[in-house]
Amino acid sequence: MGSGQPRGRGGARPTLEEVAARAGVGRGTVSRVINGSPRVSEQTRAAVEEAVAELGYVPNTAARALAANRTDSIAVVVPEPESRFFAEPYFSDIIHGVGTALAETDMQLLLTFAGGDRERRSLAQYLSAHRVDGVLLVSVHADDPLPDLLQQLDIPAVISGRRSADEPLASVDSDNFAGARAAVDHLLDRGRRTIATITGRLDVYGAQRRLDGYRDALTEAGHPVDEALTARGDFTEDGGRRAMTELLARRPDLDAVFAGSDVMAAGARQILREEGRRIPDDVALVGFDDSAIARHMDPPLTSVRQPITEMGRTMTDVLLAEIADTRPAAARRLARRQIVLPTELVRRASS
């Protein structure tokens, strides 16, 4: 006979996760049942109580106190105006991935915009009150104070796209450098020699890396990098139009354009058509994102596919792991993950 002390896997005390697995529910649901929350159906409560009894689970007092402070919610913070969020497929694809990852949990999702100083101050107050268990930061600029605030508050956070090579927060990104290189290599293979680029906002690290990839591909192929062939955009269609107008004024002999997003490529295409340039006969065009815009353009747009939905899923998985990590803050900081997902060039008629 044993000592009567309940044991889980390997003889250890049964855990909250084991109770959740036995009951077929999420960890948050078990916490709510143990803490007497009314936000649980009777059927679910009975299943959890049965699992607790079968495993002999005894709640740890400290863990119960911690569970009582949990909100069972995470925030997706977009430091952009709402207009940009709804105009660009990138954001909806990220949210789709986040929703997929949360579908099997009891976490609630809060979407908030912080495109201006007033919104940032309001969000800072909200986060300082620890009203969410963790934060997903999407489309963060290099000078954004929000990531530093989250570190100061010790709120688990994951960022989509690093702010720099030395990003201290956990991050999930696509391989912007390799994607841009593949785009320019493709244009070179198609015989194009005067290849321009429209960058995104260069205070976004991913936009910098796409510009780096463009330059690297040209240099390796033995072509000088001509700064007159680089125009700065801002990831918007209007920005693509302005940049394309600049490029044609500076280098009317250009025969290809690599745009740092499909949305900017759509703006560039409009100017090229207005100027009587045929795509791809006169000017080949390549975008980045492989969004629905790319597939529906005329002609369909060659684009670098980044796995945006997978990025949203992966960010959420990493954040949930951070939320569940009960180690001291210093140990958690050392273990933060920097994940880079592969990109793929999708060839279509525009190039």
Provide structural commentary:
The protein has 351 residues and is α/β, with parallel strands linked by helices. The chain has three domains: 9-68, lambda repressor-like DNA-binding domains (434 Repressor (Amino-terminal Domain), Orthogonal Bundle); 73-174 and 309-342, Rossmann fold (3-Layer(aba) Sandwich); 176-305, Response regulator (Rossmann fold), CATH 3.40.50.2300. Helix content is 46%, strand content 16%. It contains 15 helices and twelve strands. A six-stranded parallel beta sheet has the order 2-1-3-4-5-11, sandwiched between helices. Strands 7-6-8-9-10-12 form a six-stranded mixed beta sheet, sandwiched between helices. The radius of gyration is 25 Å and the shape is elongated. Residues 1-10 have low confidence and may be disordered.
Distance between the termini: 75 Å
Quaternary state of the chains: single chain
Overall spatial form: elongated
Strand order of the largest sheet: 2-1-3-4-5-11
Task: Set out the fold topology.
Elements (H helix, E strand, L loop, with lengths): L15 H8 L3 H8 L7 H14 L5 H8 L4 E6 L3 H6 L1 H14 L5 E6 L3 H12 L5 E5 L7 H8 L3 E4 L9 E5 L1 H14 L5 E5 L5 H16 L9 E3 L4 H14 L5 E4 L2 H13 L9 E6 L2 H5 L5 E4 L2 H17 L4 H6 L3 E4 L2 E3 L5
Helix pairs in contact: 1-2, 1-3, 2-3, 6-14, 7-8, 9-10, 11-12
List keywords for this structure.
about 350 residues, alpha/beta, 434 Repressor (Amino-terminal Domain), Rossmann fold, 3 domains, six-stranded parallel beta sheet, six-stranded mixed beta sheet, disordered N terminus
